[in-house]
Amino acid sequence: MPSITRRSLLAGAAATGVLAANARSALAQTVPMTPNLAGKSVFITGCSSGFGRLGAETYARLGARVFATMRNLPRPEADELRQLALDAKLDLYVLPLDVLRDDEVDAAVAEAERINGGPMDVLVNNAGIGISSPVELQDMEATRLIFDTNVLGCHRVARAVLPGMRSKGAGQIFQISSQLGRVIVPYSGHYSATKFALEAMSEQMAYELVPHNIDVTIIQPGGYPTKVWVNRNVNSAALKERVTAVHADGYRAQFERMGTEDGSGRSANPQDVPDAIARTIAMPPGTRPLRIPVHPGPKPQVVINEVSARVQTEWLGGSGYGPLIKAVHNA
Question: Residue 29's pLDDT is what?
């Protein structure tokens, strides 16, 4: 079987859709549909529902030691996950962690490393929120909350695990972004702004971590019917109560819809995301793609991913940063 690298994923990707097809093909050729993750330790944020909850169970059932974190413990979701681990004899631990709090982040990572007897192999930065409505309606409270969660929260957790990963010279970080980290849908608040920032921060980290043999992969899901819509309604409804008429009057129809999203029309299986992550974990270090679009439907971000990779390589490939750029893009 030929070796699959990021070079093979990017080479010849000149038309929309080619990179995504190559990425899926590479994963299919490199690892089995149900990879063996025995011996891997996986630290996940936002495990009360959605991709985080599915991922915690998925990776544990594939043999990994999983540290599933969530905020506001005790809560029923934590009890359910602990009971599942007990019943199914899974190597899975539930730890309290609010990505907004430095102390909880540091404590959770320290406890996971203590239980694991060493640094984490994998971080899945999954926790995130959305707050809908036009940008003008986003007050400073909402703006700080979404950036603190979607960008600074990922940064906090990555900084907490990276010293351990660097000490052993290996690791993998997954950042859960979105299609909207590359393209923009009007009236989505600051969601795209935060995911654009996460994409940029993650790509920079990917370059800077090359000397430490730590891979960074950005997962770009499309729309999935997870609890994110419920949580978005809660946050959007809270903002709606604070919006003043001077702003709301400019966007009356959008203002009225705030807090009423139902996620209808989204029937894709959320299991797609943890499955893609599990199979990427099983790929050889240095061969994992920088970005993986995940969704059975259209992937409008693919052409942007292709152009971005090409521009980075052409712009900096011949400079002193060239080895870092080429290692990530296998150019």
Answer: 57
Cα separation, 44 vs 93, in Å, equals 11
For domain 35-306, give its CATH number from 2.40.30.110, 3.90.1150.10, 3.20.20.80, 3.40.50.720: 3.40.50.720
Element (H, E) at 83: helix 76-88
Q: What is the pLDDT of residues 231-254, one digit of tens each?
A: 899 999 999 999 999 999 999 999
- Is residue 94 within 8 Å of residue 47, measured between CB atoms? yes
In this model, does residue 274 exceed pLDDT 60?
A: yes
**List 59, 93, 187, 191, catalytic entry:** 191
- Order of all β-strands in the sheet with 41-44: 92-96, 65-70, 41-44, 122-125, 171-176, 214-221, 291-294
Q: Residue 176: count other Cβ atoms within 10 Å of its Cβ.
A: 28
Measured CA to CA, the distance from residue 20 to residue 24 in angstroms comes to: 6
Query: Distance from CA of residue 272 to its chain's centroid?
Result: 13
8 A C-beta contact, residue 301 and residue 183: yes
Domain spans of the chain, in order of start:
35-306
Strands (E), the chain: 41-44, 65-70, 92-96, 122-125, 171-176, 214-221, 291-294
**The two structure tokens encoding residue 266:** 């989204």
Residue 191 known to be catalytic: yes
Alpha carbons 316 and 331: distance in angstroms, whole number: 11
| C-alpha span between 153 and 66 (Å, rounded) | 20
Q: What's the pTM value of the predicted model, to 2 decimals?
A: 0.90
Residues 6+ apart with CB under 8 A from 306: 10, 13, 14, 16, 18, 19
Under 8 Å between Cβ of 217 and 291? yes
Altogether, the residues listed in the chain come to a count of 331
Paired strand residues for 69: 95
